[in-house]
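Throughout our pipeline, every protein is held as a single compact record rather than as scattered files. Such a record has a labelled line for the sequence and another for the backbone structure tokens. This encoding replaces a full spatial description with a residue-level series of whole-number codes. For reference, a complete record is included directly beneath this paragraph.
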Amino acid sequence: MKPENPAPLQWQFSHRAEQMQSSAIREILKVTMRPDITSFAGGLPSPLTFPVEHMKAAFDRVLTQQGKVALQYGPTDGYLPLREWIADSLSTDGARILPEQVLMVSGSQQGLDLLGKVLVDEGSKVLVETPSYLGALQAFSLYGARFESVPSDEQGLLPEAIAPIAAGARMLYSLPNFQNPTGRTIPAERRVRLVETCARLGLPLIEDDPYGALSYRNAPLPKMLTMNPSGVIYMGSFSKVLTPGIRLGYVVAPRPLILKMEQAKQATDLHTAQLTQMVVFEAIKDGFLDQHVPTIRKLYGDQCDAMLGALQEFFPAGCSWSKPEGGMFVWVTLPSHIDSGALLNEAVEQEKVAFVPGAPFFANVAEKNTMRLSFVTVPPEQIRAGVERLGKLIAAKLQGVAP
């Protein structure tokens, strides 16, 4: 029975909810799902890399052999055999990582959210790269972070720029390998200085590393975690090396922080899906990633070469771009008077090409003449055609005429 003359509901949102904003990338993706659009916008792994049959077999084995365990609630910190595998994979002769230091999370984004919950108060200073990962800026903003942008160059964070602005900071957030959005990588020698600087200042250093395995040609650089396990918070993910649909990541940190993050996770989702964790362990325990990841590197490397070649051929003088050696992104800088946000609508409607404007990746002063191009979901011939059309549009803007 319905109540008579119900009053309209007056939603009183929390201050935190009032501050929420949709991801600029997710909003762009809604527009670019049209089949006629060549999209360089999404930071999505290529479906061609998803090991469907291997995962299907892993699901079958887990459900057949351990179905009742897999379908039950699990511990908050995660499935122990998988945490042991992660700890062993990260350990070196000089730095032993223990399973107790590993917390399984429902994708790296949940890890960022939990770090914000336990480390950030309203007005807390958080140091970030220039530019930085949009998802981290969103996660920490939700808890009232006040961002301080650390000067960076084409090789990432400048260690010498940290101390003058570090007073009172809760943490420094970094993506050292093939960074989203720029594709840049922090060299080994600079990593040492970065870790030493943060250790001297007593500043927690977050090493977010979803792309580290995706080097096209070179051996992986040393992880900052192994240089100082007591001061570095390491974040990893299976999204880029297995499949993003499983929503499985992990955080490795000193035990006191892990315990607090466990408490926060208990209030969020109790635990990450037991079934997913058991299936991933079943899929990778016998060395599958050693055979699978090189196929991803080869595919992405060829697509990156196609994009860099097309940019060189079709983009006008006055434009510059990063030359990543791994990962999924190229960062383009346009002449200073071109606003890539305004350019996007014309690119989609006139040239059927989409990209992500660079401004949302800046925590403070945005450089609006930048854009992020993702190449991993687009075949080489389509990359070439899309870059050609985008280059034509930019050239027309520089000449002041309609394309």
